[in-house]
Amino acid sequence: MIRVLLAGGGTGGHLMPALALADALRAARVDLEPVLVGALRGVEATVLPRRAYRYHLLPAEPIYRRAWWRNLRWPLLWPGLWRATRAVLAEERPRLVVGTGGYAAGLVLLAAHRAGIPIAVQEQNAYPGVTSRRAARWAAQVHLGFPEAARRIRPGRGTTVFSLGNPIVPPPAERSRAEARRALGLDPGRPVVLVTGGSQGARAVNRAVAEVLAAGGFGDVALLWSTGMATHADYAALDRPPAVQVRPFWDPIATAYAAADLVVARAGAMSVAELAAWGLPSILVPLPTAAADHQSANAAAIAAAGAAIHLPERALNGARLAQEVRGLLTDPARLRVMAEAACQRGQPNAAHAIAGCLLDLL
């Protein structure tokens, strides 16, 4: 059995690409076993036990940019983490190691490189993370989710750089907006706005939406609002189905995507990739505290392509959000142009395309 290690995590934005690639690799070759490697304190500690893959969790911790004093523990953590990482490689004996970023990936890529195991990097964002920028020098392949990231990496002499998009679960081949709206109890002829901040929610976006509803709403619009688990209790009383549907999150989100005319969201790389794959116009509100402000780079790239409005959080309030949403929904021609631009950026089959390139390394 050929083993491929997929190292990444800490957040869903690094873990979900690894899982999408694992699915694509397993579908491509029956004699290949993907094995996931993550961090004990990352989201993967709760997600991976529910998946069908074997996995290892390492005692890795993030590099703190603001609370720098917390990094003083690293000299104490390093020896044990390095031993654990090398033990995983010795046990699994992989033919290839793929890093999808985050603090769970860097040391695994370094150890594999030193052991002479080929490595590949999948970078999701328009502004590459530290792990991807450093590992690109040693990698056989670098896979970019945004072509704009190419100017910020320095690949090695033998590195091949691909820009095939981010690996996501692609939209179903057959999907109907009318059927999705019926499933949600919505009027098929009424515009639908989806607001989502991911499973954790987006507090600033939630506050702005609550302000809009307090002022009378977005107009003759159905609102699908994903608040995130942590803050759902704060907004659950605003649930007024079917016109206003307030949930912690949509699972599966495919039904909400299929029903929506417009999406308000953060600008995480995987969210942006899904919106493009579904051909959905969007208003993107980047998380200002994201590492190296990479979400702003994502939003700027998609806005420059004509698929989204980039609305910085510092400019966000209920009045501004209502203005942007109403302006788009009353301009169907502009919405169509944005949807077409999103489709042009969308790469729904990226996971299979990347998997094909990775298999070439075997």
Q: Could you give me the name of the CATH homologous superfamily of the largest domain?
A: Glycogen Phosphorylase B
β-sheet strand percentage: 15-25%
Number of separate strands: 13
Name the structural class: alpha/beta
State the order of secondary-structure elements, H for helix, E for strand. Answer: EHEHEHEHEHEEHEHEHEHEHEHEHHH
Number of domains: 2
Helix content range: 25-40%
The CATH topology assignment of the largest domain is Rossmann fold
For the biggest β-sheet, the strand order reads 3-2-1-4-5-6-7
Sheet having the most strands = 7 strands, parallel
Radius of gyration: 21 Å
Arithmetic mean pLDDT? 92
Mind telling me which CATH architecture of the largest domain this is?
3-Layer(aba) Sandwich
List the helices and strands and how they pair.
Blueprint: E1 2-7, H1 12-28, E2 32-39, H2 44-47, E3 55-58, H3 74-92, E4 96-99, H4 106-114, E5 119-123, H5 130-135, E6 141-144, E7 160-162, H6 177-183, E8 192-196, H7 203-214, E9 222-226, H8 232-235, E10 244-247, H9 254-259, E11 262-265, H10 269-278, E12 282-284, H11 294-304, E13 308-310, H12 318-329, H13 332-345, H14 350-360
Parallel strand pairs: 1-2, 1-4, 2-3, 4-5, 5-6, 6-7, 8-9, 8-11, 9-10, 11-12, 12-13
Helix pairs in contact: 1-14, 3-4, 7-12, 10-13
In short:
With 362 residues, this protein is α/β, with parallel strands linked by helices. The protein has helices at residues 12-28, 44-47, 74-92, 106-114, 130-135, 177-183, 203-214, 232-235, 254-259, 269-278, 294-304, 318-329, 332-345, 350-360, and strands at 2-7, 32-39, 55-58, 96-99, 119-123, 141-144, 160-162, 192-196, 222-226, 244-247, 262-265, 282-284, 308-310.
